[in-house]
């Protein structure tokens, strides 16, 4: 029996955990840093010289960042 390959994602705000099946993903997009469950976002805060933080937010928590981004523009 073949082993199923999965990726476990945890929201960095509420700690919700989701398991994503790796099979349907295109081989070129297997960089696990950016494979997120549907509806999730990856956020990073950068200065001109360095990355200060990176976080993955679930579909419930991403609204905070989207709202803040809307006010910034």
List the helices and strands and how they pair.
Layout: E1 6-10, E2 17-21, E3 41-46, E4 51-57, H1 62-72
Multimer state: single chain
Give the strand tally. 4
Helix tally equals 1
Strand composition percent? 25-35%
Main beta sheet strand tally, sense and closure: 2 strands, antiparallel
Structural class: alpha+beta
Q: Can you tell me the residue ranges where pLDDT is under 50 for at least 5 consecutive residues?
A: none
Structure description:
By secondary structure, the chain is an alpha+beta fold. It has one domain (6-72). The chain is built from one helix and four strands, in the order E-E-E-E-H. The strands form two sheets. Strands 1-2 form a two-stranded antiparallel sheet. A two-stranded antiparallel ribbon has the order 3-4. Strand 1 (6-10) and strand 2 form a beta hairpin. The termini are far apart. The mean pLDDT is 84.
Question: Can you tag this structure with a few keywords?
Answer:
73 residues, alpha+beta, two-stranded antiparallel sheet, two-stranded antiparallel ribbon, 4 strands, 32% strand, elongated
């Amino acid at each position: 029996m073949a082993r199923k390959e999965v990726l476990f994602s945890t929201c960095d705000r509420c700690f919700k955990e989701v398991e994503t099946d790796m099979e349907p993903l295109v081989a070129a997009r297997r960089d696990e840093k950016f494979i997120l469950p549907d509806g999730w976002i990856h956020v990073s805060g950068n200065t001109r010289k360095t990355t200060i933080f990176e976080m993955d937010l679930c579909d419930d928590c991403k609204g905070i960042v989207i709202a803040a981004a809307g006010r910034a523009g």
